[in-house]
Every structure is written in structure tokens, then in C-alpha cells.
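Aim 2, interim progress: modelling of the benzoyl coenzyme A-bound target.
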Amino acid sequence: MMPNPPELASGASAEAARDVAREAAFDARIAAGESIEPKDWMPERYRKQLIRMMSQHAHSEVVGMLPEGNWITRAPSLRRKMSLIAKVQDEGGHGLYIYCGTETLGVDRHDLVEQLLNGTAKYSSIFNYPTLSWADMGVIGWLVDGAAIVNQTILAKTSYGPYARAMIRICKEENFHKRQGYEIVATLAKGTPAQRAMVQDSVNRFWWPSLMMFGPSDTNSPNSGELRRWKVKRKTNDELRQRFVNLTIPQVQAVGLTVPDPDLAYNATTEDWEFGAIDWAEFNEVVRGNGPCNRERIAARRAAHDNGQWVRAAATAHAEKQAQNKTEAA
Ligand code: BYC
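Predicted structure of the complex, ligand included:
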């Protein structure tokens, strides 16, 4: 190999020295609790990690519309139908805010959507479970949105400004989702024996997958170290999972239901509800694409994308026409 010409070598080392200084300044800003904004210098790895995490989050919101969207036509009353439609629509909106936030990092939304459709991007494992009964609408609102709130309330303090700001609005809407879910659960829990059995069955199916939403245990979470150092994540997966369990068990008890965990026990010293072992083999299978509904969900998103092609074409043509009219008028 030819040695570098001296002027190039010194140029490269000057650049490397500048990067070290920039990185030190960046770390100092993070340590001081400052918010990082799109035009600020940031390490390439910070940008990549955020794109990964934010795009997976946006995909989760959009795929998350499917299990509930499935029940809109079967809601038992007009009031229930209206709130379910509003909730599913909110989730589409959340996807939109987070895709917009991700684009501030210099990526194109179309590329991100393509990654979802071709199976190279992940989305939350929870949406790969089927919704078998109306009670699932209550339990998803309560447990799944409840878990999302625990995770996202902390993310509202994340170091990247656009993501943190998106989380503030999303959490407000998620609170409505959780309340409507818990109301459905409470109503069914004090209903007929068949309604009670239906809601208990739903809790039995969604309890463990809800705990898996927080990600692998801390000892097996490759991204956590870096994300915590940059204050993207402010609590670990296990800390947030424990907080969710502690908040939720009293709610389970209040409606007279149970969770399917024989090892659940209150520890008066730590004030934690200790829970049994999570089935990580199941989690890994679902994340790898082999959950009960992974293929169905991706097929539904691909069909929606194909069916929306004419809308995107029309919107693009309209924008071009507007731009042309503007140029002609100027
Ligand atoms: N499902 O190193 P780790 C919602 C992946 S939407 C699938 O701990 P990290 C809602 C992880 O991506 C809920 N994959 O990762 C919507 C990583 O893979 P890669 C979505 C998972 O990033 C509609 C690998 O496992 N919320 O709430 O440090 C209706 C190792 O994990 C999962 C968000 O996305 C999972 N559950 O921590 C209702 C919140 N867990 O990328 C509700 C933002 C982990 O290295 N995201 N993986 O190949 C986060 O807070 C974090 O990304 C996570 C994972 C806690 C999820």
C-alpha cells in the first residue's frame, strides 16, 4: 500500500483531533443535561442509535393500529366505537410525529418505511399477538398503553430535543388511551360471569407480552450502555419493567382480576412486586419474526402501502403543480 502523502496524513489527524474535541464538548453538554437539537454536532453513533430507536418506535405506532383497528366494526356501542376510532387515529398521528422527528436526523421517511416493509426494521413485539375478543381492546389500552406511558414518560426527558418533545404530546394522548382501556376492563370485570371470564382470559394472554415490551433484561441489552451514557435512555429496561409492575398490580387488584404469575409476591423491604421468570425464548422468537401474527402484520402494512400508492402519487403531483404555479407567479 502507498503511504499517505504527508499533507493528507496531517489533514486527517487534524480532523481526528477536531472530532475528539467535538466529542468532548458533546459529552459535556450531555453531562450538563442540555438538549441536543438537529443542527448541533453529534457523534455519528449517537445519530445512528437515535435513528434506529426512533424509527422502530414510529413503526410500532403504525403497526400498533392493526390489532385494534380490527375491532372497530365490532365495538359494542357507538361510544366505544368512537373512542376506539379516536385511539387508533391517535396512534397513526404518533407514528407521524416520530417519523418527522427521525427525519430531523437526516434520513428519509420513505427509506424507513421501506425497512419496515422489507422486514429489516424491528417494531414492538407486542403487536404480533392476536386480538381475539372485545376484552382485548380494554386490556391493550390498559396494559400496552400503560407500559408505553411508563417507558415514554421517561423518554420525554431524553437528550434529543425533537424526540423528547414528541413524547410529551404522545404521553398526554396515551393517558386517554389507558383510561378508556381501564374503563372497558372495569366494566367487564363487574359484568356477567362470561364477561369476567373474557377479560381474565385477555389479561392472561397479554400480561407477559406487556412485560416483554420493555426489552431484554439489563444483562442482555446490547444498546443500553451507550444509550444511557448519552442520556437517550434514562432508566434501564428492568427498572422500567419493575415500575410498570408496581403501578399495575394494585390496578389489577382493584378490579378483582389476577395476573398469570404464581411467583408474584410483594417484597415489603424493597416495596416491589417481584415477578416470575419471563420467557425470553418466546420474546426472541417474536422479535425474529416468528410470533403468532408477524407475517399477517407485515402483509397488512404492505397491502396498505400498495393501496395508498395513488394517494401519494396525487399528493406529489399536486405539490409539484403548486410549486410550478408559485415559480410562474414570481
Ligand atoms: N420488541 O439493546 P436493547 C406503543 C430489540 S409503541 C421488538 O435493550 P434498546 C404503542 C431492540 O430494538 C411501543 N424488539 O434495545 C403503540 C434491539 O434490537 P436492534 C414501542 C425489541 O433500544 C400503539 C434488541 O432487541 N415503544 O407504545 O436499548 C398502541 C436489543 O434490545 C423489543 C418504543 O419503541 C421489543 N419489545 O431498548 C399502543 C419506545 N425490545 O435494534 C402502544 C422507544 C427490544 O439492536 N424504544 N427489542 O436490532 C425504547 O425505549 C427502546 O428501544 C426499547 C429497547 C426499550 C424498546
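The pocket of benzoyl coenzyme A is lined by residues 52-53, 56-57, 60-61, 64, 91, 122, 124-125, 144-145, 148, 151, 212-216, 221-224, 227, 237, 287 (CB under 6 Å). The mean pLDDT is 95.
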